[in-house]
């Protein structure tokens, strides 16, 4: 395979991929948590949360491919196993079936954690002059911050 010559050094690509791999792991963990809560939510808010979670996990599922494909475009394999995701993710798994309000609280925390992971990578990507990854991170930040706000609003009594 020919060497990659896209104007980003191998050292910078390696740093960017490390950050994107952490973002992919957080994003997958968030996706799985949201889908789990969609299946298991109950109580007076069932219908609204069930539908809200479905919209969120669908958006997250589509984002996973964008992140993984950016890793591949930079010349590295994307992590894709539970073992790798657990090692790379900053989000802990939730055990059991929490109450509906606790599900929302967990999701707020996971959305915010995923935003922090994306934001932490921005200076590295900016220094490497990697506009496609900057664009990807900016889009992901917008989604995670807006979703966290919407979830927090559910808890505001």
Q: Tell me the helix content.
A: over 70%
CATH topology group: Ferritin
User: What top-tier CATH class fits best?
Assistant: Mainly Alpha
Secondary-structure-derived class:
mainly alpha
Largest sheet: none
Overall number of domains: 1
User: How many strand units?
Assistant: 0
List the helices and strands and how they pair.
Elements: H1 10-40, H2 46-73, H3 82-88, H4 100-127, H5 131-155
Helix pairs in contact: 1-2, 1-3, 1-4, 2-5, 4-5
Please tag this protein with its features.
157 residues, Ferritin, mainly alpha, 5 helices
How would you sum up this structure, described in words?
With 157 residues, the protein is mainly α. It has a single domain, classed as Ferritin, core subunit, four-helix bundle (Ferritin, Up-down Bundle). The protein is 76% helix and 0% strand. The protein has five helices and no strands. The longest helix is centred in the first third of the chain and has 31 residues. The mean pLDDT is 96.
Q: TL;DR of this structure?
A:
This protein is mainly α. It has helices at about 10-40, 45-75, 80-90, 100-125, 130-155. The chain has one domain: Ferritin, core subunit, four-helix bundle (Ferritin, Up-down Bundle).
């Amino acid at each position: 395979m020919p060497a990659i010559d896209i104007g980003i050094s191998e050292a910078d690509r390696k740093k960017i991929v490390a950050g994107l791999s952490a973002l992919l792991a957080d994003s997958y963990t968030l996706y799985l948590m949201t889908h789990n809560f969609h299946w298991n939510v109950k109580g007076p808010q069932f219908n609204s949360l069930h539908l809200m979670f479905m919209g969120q996990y669908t958006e997250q599922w589509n984002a996973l491919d964008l992140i993984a494909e950016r890793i591949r475009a930079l010349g590295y394999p994307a992590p894709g196993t539970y073992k790798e995701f657990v090692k790379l993710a900053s989000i802990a798994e939730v055990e059991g079936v929490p109450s509906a309000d606790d599900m929302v609280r967990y999701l707020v925390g996971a959305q915010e954690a995923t935003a922090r992971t994306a934001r932490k990578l921005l200076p590295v990507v900016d220094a490497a002059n990697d506009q496609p990854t900057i664009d990807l991170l900016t889009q992901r930040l917008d989604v995670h911050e807006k979703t966290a706000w919407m979830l927090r609003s559910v808890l505001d009594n």
